[in-house]
Amino acid sequence: MNPDPDLDLTDLSPTDLSPTGPDPTARSVGRSVLCRLLNLDGRLFEAAAARHWPGAEQVLPRLSRGANHGVLWFATAAAMAASRTPRARRAAVRGLASLSVASLAINTIGKRSVRRARPVLDPVPLVRQLKRQPITTSFPSGHAASAAAFATGVALESPAWGAAVAPVAFSVAASRVYTGVHFPSDVLAGAALGAGAAFLTRRLVPTRAQVRRRSRARAEAPALPEGDGLVMVANRASGTADRVRALHNALPRAEIVQCAPEEVGEELAKAATRARVLGVCGGDGTVNTAAGIALRHGLPLAVLPGGTLNHFALDLGVEDERDLARAVRHGEAVRVDAARYVTGEREGLFLNTLSLGVYPELVRVRDRWSHRIGGWPAGLLGALRVLRADGHPLEVELGGARRPLWLLFVGNGVYHRMGLAPGRRTDLADGLLDVRVVHGSRRPALRLLAAAAAGPLTRSPAHAAVQVNRLRLTGVTPGTPLAYDGEVTAASGEVTLEKLPGALTVYRPLRSAH
């Protein structure tokens, strides 16, 4: 990097490096060293221009143009996301996020801090040169920064996809010297900046591999090398056809039952009468239903994520059919907690979360609109509706006192937050209910936003948290919406929540299998 922010690198030559400033000797030495580096950079550029690169004339200029404005990387990310595996989608998102950070740094700091002219194109064969030459300063290379940021971001989330992307990223960076638009040092500096942007992004939003799950003792579960005895019920509404087909290819003797959402409970109950292992593919609500049936019949559960969020499967460590098939083949399973709620004459399980207050209203709005505008837009609409609400807080008796609450959240297991990422569970058998409350006030918006910003803090003016194994709420207005694992029911005056430690045996690839 240029040690003088006002120095124009194009004006440097050995004859005009006159010492000025408070330390003339040090400044003169610094300029002399910089001049030698620039001369070396120029010689490397000329050597690259003179060298014949077999086959590169047809590829590298086109690749360089294709990377303009990040088009190549957006297309690569789309292709990765189309593979429909959670790991590939996360890698694509992380790659684009890293690219965005690198581009921001290049355009706000990099290009403005050092004014360096582009190389003279005379040594570069005409066939290599780009038809449209860049007009910005040369240092550092934005193309190299974007390529390195995307490839590094992808590799941090998925080494396999990173290995596939890396040769393309290297070729894009090399193409900038090959076509004569950058000196080698421009490319190296840009690549370093891009890789740094990817690691900064990981610090802000850790990768899933950084979330260390607590090791649990192996539970007794049958090993089914070809899937014989596994009955997998798949909710067709979740778009599960490709996933169950892939699972069936991996476990050819497994029985696959695909059904409509309204038939899931009935088909799971039938499957439990003939299965050694009950399998389910769908969202968190479908998995909740399967867990209740597996508990009643004393069956181990095999969960294949097939919904939008898949909180339970992902916290468990099952991301796709490959993870599940490996666990089923080798009989790898653990015991995890379930949680039970009782209100009036109604009782049920929840594997992820239960809430009272504004969140059930969000779920209702989302469910009402999701079939018309899609799940994520409907969820955003529900959040906006909640934040603009003028209603009254929920009032419950908690700890012997009547308290107004905008939200009471209960997690089956403690949720941890790292960086800016949403909270996740690292232990599904910790024996605890994670209770969070947002205190009532005149309007919910500021309280809810403050609680979201506070994250897992145990004390704040808006937000409080405690971990218990049993919770009893009284004085709940009958008919108050109660949401659990994405489903909504109604509370009836009193709500009791309790843990069922180690109640459920679930297949999961053990750490030693990775």
Summarize the topology.
Blueprint: H1 24-50, H2 60-66, H3 71-81, H4 86-113, H5 142-157, H6 159-178, H7 184-204, E1 230-235, H8 241-250, E2 255-259, H9 264-272, E3 277-282, H10 284-297, E4 301-305, H11 311-316, H12 321-330, E5 333-343, E6 346-350, E7 353-357, H13 358-373, H14 375-387, E8 394-398, E9 401-412, E10 415-416, E11 424-425, E12 433-439, H15 444-454, E13 463-468, E14 470-474, E15 481-484, E16 487-490, E17 494-507
Helix pairs in contact: 2-6, 3-4, 4-5, 4-7, 5-6, 5-7, 8-12, 9-10, 13-14
Describe it.
- This protein is α+β, with helices and mostly antiparallel strands and 514 residues long.
- The protein has 3 domains: 9-209, Vanadium-containing Chloroperoxidase, domain 1 (Up-down Bundle), CATH 1.20.144; 230-331, Rossmann fold, CATH 3.40.50; 353-500, Sandwich (Tumour Suppressor Smad4).
- It contains 15 helices and 17 strands.
- It has helices at residues 24-50, 60-66, 71-81, 86-113, 142-157, 159-178, 184-204, 241-250, 264-272, 284-297, 311-316, 321-330, 358-373, 375-387, 444-454; strands spanning 230-235, 255-259, 277-282, 301-305, 333-343, 346-350, 353-357, 394-398, 401-412, 415-416, 424-425, 433-439, 463-468, 470-474, 481-484, 487-490, 494-507.
- The strands form 4 sheets. Strands 7, 8, 9, 12, 13, 15 and 16 form a 7-stranded antiparallel β-sheet that branches.
- Helix 10 (284-297) links the parallel strand 3 (277-282) and strand 4 (301-305).
- Helix 5 runs antiparallel to helix 6 (159-178).
- It is elongated.
- The model is unreliable at 1-21 (pLDDT under 50).
